[in-house]
Amino acid sequence: MSFSVNRQRSLWWGLSLVVILSGLGAMAISWASLGSPLRLGLDFIGGTRLQFELACSAMQTCSQPIDIDAVRQVLNQQGLGNSSLQIIDQDGVSIRTVPLDVDQRTRLSDALAQKLGDFDPQKTQIETVGPTLGEEILRSGLLALLVSFIGITIYLTLRFQFDYACFALVALVHDVLLTTGVFAILGLVAGVEIDSLFIVALLTIIGFSVNDTVVIYDRVRETLKLNPDLGIKEVVDQAVVQTLGRSINTTLTTLLPLITIFIFGGDTLRYFALALIIGFTTGAYSSIFIASTLLAWWRDRQPPRPATNTLETTPTP
Amino acid sequence: MGKYRGWLIAILVLLMAATWVIVRTPARLGLDLRGGAQLTLQVQTTDKVPQITPQVLAAVQGVVQRRIDGLGVAEAVVQTAGDDKLLVQLPGVTDPEQAERILKGTAQLLFAAQKPGTETQLQIERQLQSQLLLEQAQLLAEQAQNANNPEAQKEIEAKLAKNRESLEKSQQAIASLFTPSDLTGAMLKEAFASPVAPGSPNWSVIVRFDSQGAELFAQLTKEIAGTGRSLGIFLDDRLISAPTVAVEYAETGIVGGSAEISGGFTAQSANDLAIQLQGGALPVPLEVVENRTVGASLGQDSIRDSLYAGLAGLVLVLIFMVAYYRLPGLIADIALILYAIFTYAAFLLFGVTLTLPGIAGFILSIGMAVDANVLIFERTREELRAGKTLYRSVESGFDRAFASILDSNVTTLIACAALFALGTGFVRGFAVTLAIGIGISMFTALTCSRTFLFYAISIPSLRKPNWFCPKLESLR
Questions:
Q1: Window from A233-242, B143-152, B160-169 with minimum mean pLDDT
Q2: CB B170 within 8 A of CB B126
Q3: Which of A44, A125, B23, B269 allows an S-S link to A138, with CB 3.0 to 4.6 Å?
């Protein structure tokens, strides 16, 4: 056997630890500066996001691009000075404010139309989420995460054994931590916000990543049955190598459409695809290098089962 | 071999059925793709209504439904969401300003006595109103039919606006024929539908007032009893019922705070009126807690981009499979295309509303659907390398990979179930599309590719181990 995951396990564990710790560090910095470990989007903290595009844009007759200062001025007049805004393709503008009710919103869009010219209603986007609803979305999302962790652990305990399930869970937590860590860093560096789709992505990552682990465990169980005398380390090494082709290919075929969505897809799905790309990649990594080596390490430490029912003597300290 | 022929025919029949479904059924696009407004309304509790029970929510839903109908938006949908929320979908609406305004107020239920000498006038006005409502329904149906014709759309919209204006006028005209009383919905204790006699097809609506309401109701009914003038019941300024009061109540009015509105009700129409009355009796304010509005062309842009991106990804997967797994890869590709067709047909069949995240889930499931085949083919290669015959290798490839495939799909389904149970709106849509995809992928990856593969190796000229595992000889 030329390749052994167990031989360099401290390397794999260390690698994961470094990435996770830097992610946790980013979360701590976010917590200090933003009040939450990740940059939460509209969906979770509430607010209004308006996106307009000038009507002249479709005919390409706009005399000049939208002046960001003019928009800022209108916002200041409406008492919304600390909103964030962004010009999109010269003739479009995206504004993010505190939650606005229908009167405030209409007043703002009217004032903007007066200053900048008419907007194309077919290109308008309005998103308002009340703060209480945002909290609810966040809470139910986290609950869904917890429930699926528990569900998967129970299923794996039934199909395999409890320690298998535990290490699969460790691998899952690893993937979730790593993905959120990367997004915490992205939030700090590039201002990337997380929305409901991020939670969906995490749950999909869990479902997918546990697949990889299950396939390896399946092979471990099978090899153990065929060669009961083999050491657990060797068994795990063999299982990993035998399933390596499958793990890489499946991850690749799943990543291909995601990468195309990330590059060519619409804005809404871009970060969703990115979260899945990161999660699936780490999912494959954690199954091959973390869940398997942990299992070998744990079983190796266990005293070998006594062949007969002899009484064990308790060691004296 | 005969066994596989049977399966082949079955798969072919399924394919034809799926194609038929796809050709015949139009896709149901979510508002984020076709453009429109989606509002989430939260029912607020008050001192009088400290808890939102399902009955309260149903009554409020009735009120909201009627107000939305008044807007004249084609295919508008009002549904309950969770314990205290209502979801309002307004396709094609680019600024839900009007809807938000009319939804925010609480329902106003008013009782009024008809003015003397206006009987014929009321009859004419009510006839006119029902004509206008009929016209509106026709226009809305027309609008839905001509969804892809912008010119006709404009014309219909103009007609609808005119119709709405006339309706408004007729409403005012009707209201001017009544003298409002002090009796309001706040004094109404309950309203429910009940058959006139047990088992009778004729139904009536029973109303009960509190003590103050009972007194006012007695006064009001005494005034009009036996005159042929009617008792106008207005909900949000619109006349929803105009019963007359029989002559025997002329002396005292209807006392006891309880009355029965009867006359030509079916179970359905009696229930509708009861819900309207209940809704009017509910002084609960509504708050718009969520508003997601997307312009139609913005939605079309994102659907196009994502669809192209997904298709590009799919083509790459197909190429990869053939390049890496050769003949089995080609068969997996056929199974994959079948998977895409079957899954899409299933979406249409189950009436799944396609949203952008839903499409993402679909594309994702295509990538995942290959997993089962990858597992099987890797296993087949291993067995070939171990020196087994081609037939035996393929067979044990399928048999041995099955446990892994089942386990991995069940765990994904667990995550799907959690998403569905605890998510809302589009999150659920994503979970459903992913779950349907997993179910169908089990069928296509196992049954379909198994059938094709065994059929292929039953043909001698295709029975070449090298087409299954390149460089096999050098490995042995």
A1: B143-152
A2: no
A3: A44
In chain A, what are the helix, strand and coil shares in percent, each to the nearest 5? 70, 10, 20
Residues B228 and B326 in one domain: no
CB of B296 within 8 Å of a chain A CB? The answer is yes
Q: Which of A71, A128, A292 is nearest to B291 (CA)?
A: A128
What tokens were used for B50? 């400290």
Residues B183 and B232 in one domain: yes
Q: What is the extent of the structural domain holding A248?
A: 9-39+132-301
Mean pLDDT of chain B: 83
Please answer yes or no on whether A258 and B367 come within 8 Å at the CB atom: yes
Q: Closest-CA residue in chain B for A257?
A: B313
Q: Which residue from A106, A140, A253 is facing B374, i.e. has the nearest CB?
A: A253
Same domain, A33 and A67: no
Domain shared by B271 and B359, yes or no: no
Q: What are phi and psi of B156, to 5 degrees?
A: -65, -40
Contact A123 B412 (CB under 8 A): no
Question: 3-state DSSP call for residue B323?
Answer: helix
A255 and A276 belong to one structural domain:
yes
Q: What is the DSSP string of A93-149?
A: EEEEES---HHHHHHHHHHHHHHH--B-GGG-EEEEE-HHHHHHHHHHHHHHHHHHH
How many domains, chain B? 2
Question: Each residue of A209-253: pLDDT tens digit?
Answer: 888 898 899 899 989 988 888 888 899 999 999 889 888 988 988
Task: Please check whether residues B360 and B426 belong to one and the same domain.
Answer: yes
| Residue B475 binned pLDDT confidence (cut-offs 50, 70, 90) | low
Same domain, B416 and B352: yes
**3-state SS, residue B140:** helix
Q: For residue B192, what is the enclosing H or E element? A: strand B188-195
B81 touches chain A (CB under 8 A): no
> Are A274 and A294 members of one domain?
yes
Of the candidates A182, A186, A174, A177, the residue with the CA atom closest to the CA atom of residue A212: A174
Say if residue B16 is in the same domain as residue B55.
no
Q: How many CB pairs under 8 A join A and B?
A: 227
Yes or no, beta carbons of A254 and B371 under 8 Å apart: yes
Reported pTM = 0.78
Q: A22 pLDDT band (50/70/90 cuts)?
A: very high
A152 and A235 in a single domain? The answer is yes
Which has the closest alpha carbon to A208: B363, B411, B362, B372? Answer: B411
Give CA angle at A311 (A308, A317), nearest 5°. 130
The alpha carbon of residue B424 and the mean position of all alpha carbons in its chain are separated, in whole angstroms, by 13
CA distance B352 to A279: 27
Q: What is the mean pLDDT of chain A?
A: 86
Domain region containing B240:
36-118+177-292
Tens of pLDDT, residue by residue over A131-146, are 888 888 788 888 888 9
Q: In what order do the strands lie in the sheet with B85-91?
A: A84-88, A92-97, A47-53, A125-129, B286-294, B36-43, B85-91, B77-81
Contact call for A137 and B95, based on CB within 8 A = no
Picking from B95, B290, B403, the nearest residue to A218 by CB comes out as B403
Q: What does each C-alpha distance from B277 to B108, B187, B282 come to in angstroms?
A: 10, 11, 9
Q: Per-residue pLDDT tens for B65-103? A: 877 877 777 778 888 887 888 888 888 888 788 788 777
